[in-house]
């Protein structure tokens, strides 16, 4: 089943969800840069791919958002007092996934480095540091923390539905 239904998310929605979930989880290894000034095997292993994977996540998030809007009338219905909370959290997560890569690019550019995705220069190295780009780019880290908190909450809510409420919320995305 490609399309979503009232009972279950379709294969395309599930593909987007789990691919983005794995890629976002991998991106969180960038937090390892805070360990020993980035001289850590996690930072060394995953750090070089951070910008490129971030670009992929942004594209996937945009495609997933467009797909979700197309599937809106066929999706499982979120009812109850928490429906506004669920929609707000999902909206903030989409915002983070889409806004973080450009903000990260501004941060890199603001520090005086070129912005490269898969080895291709997207934004040339500036002659000097660009303070305004650096300052706006600082929002990248704030959104990363917000996203990490929301992801933990999202996982917690899914587990709550599965083990405590014993409903089909988690199974619809599995």
Automatic annotation (TrEMBL):
Residue ranges occupied by any Cytochrome b561 bacterial/Ni-hydrogenase domain in the UniProt entry: 8-173
One of the GO biological process terms: respiratory electron transport chain
Transmembrane segments: 12-29, 49-67, 88-108, 142-163
UniProt similarity note: Belongs to the cytochrome b561 family.
Protein's name according to its UniProt entry: Cytochrome B561
Gene Ontology, cellular component aspect: plasma membrane
Highest taxon above the source species: Bacteria
Keywords from the UniProt entry: Cell membrane, Electron transport, Heme, Iron, Membrane, Metal-binding, Transmembrane, Transmembrane helix, Transport
Recorded topology in the membrane: Multi-pass membrane protein
Organism: Methylophaga aminisulfidivorans MP
Main location class: membrane
